[in-house]
Amino acid sequence: MAYDERLAQRIRSALQGNRLITERRMFGGIAFLRQGLMFVGVSDTSLMARVGKANHADSLGRKHVRAMDFTGKPMQGYVFVDADGTKSEAQLRFWLERCEQFVSTLPPKASGAKLRYSKNSNTTSS
Question: By CB neighbour count within 10 A (0-12 exposed, 13-18 middle, 19+ buried), where does 39 fall?
Answer without folding.
Answer: buried
